[in-house]
Amino acid sequence: MSAITPAPNQRTGIAGLRANSLAALVMLVIEFALGVVVNLYAMLPAADAGKTLFSALGAAVTDGPVALTLHALLGTLLLITGISAVVRAAFLRGGVLITITGVALLAILLAWLSGTRFVGDSGNGESLIMALATGVAIICYATILFGATEPVDT
């Protein structure tokens, strides 16, 4: 058995985690595309400058361009998806799976926090952090999707 292969009685749990990972991967690719659109084409309102964490999120959702609104909402949904993956991995009691989903969740959280800072100052550093963290999360969920296999009946 490989390090991320669960015990035979966990077939349903690993299928759920793999489905969760696929959903996260699809959302991350869409999120990345929306981020590129926002970075290249969206004009953030000048009134958003200097906003803090939750006020920046609120401004992105209510006052921002459509691409930014979708990006912020999908990013928040990705946080929920990441938490779900960690919980699923914890139920499987797989240390490697918990670690991988935990790293993915931390990457999504880092991207989300950088996004709120980006609304406040439109900095290139925050944009880079969002892109790199998205890449880390994609690698983590792809590892689960393609590496976590269902147990083989013997």
Helices and strands in order:
Layout (H helix, E strand, L loop, with lengths): L10 H31 L11 H10 L3 H27 L2 H27 L2 H24 L7
Helix pairs in contact: 1-3, 1-5, 2-3, 2-4, 3-4, 4-5
Give your account of this protein's structure.
The chain is mainly α and 154 residues long. It has one domain (21-40, 49-144). It is 77% helix and 0% strand. It contains five helices and no strands. α4 (95-121) runs antiparallel to α5. The two termini are 12 Å apart.
Number of domains: 1
Measured between the Cα atoms of the first and last residue, the distance is 12 Å
Mean pLDDT: 85
Strand content: under 5%
Number of DSSP strand runs: 0
- Number of helices in the DSSP assignment: 5
Net shape:
elongated
Uncertain runs with pLDDT below 50, 5 residues or more? Answer: none
Helicity level, as a percent range?
Answer: over 70%
Report the structural category. Answer: mainly alpha
What Rg is obtained from the alpha carbons, in whole angstroms?
A: 17 Å
Query: Secondary-structure element sequence?
Result: HHHHH
The profile of the biggest β sheet is: none
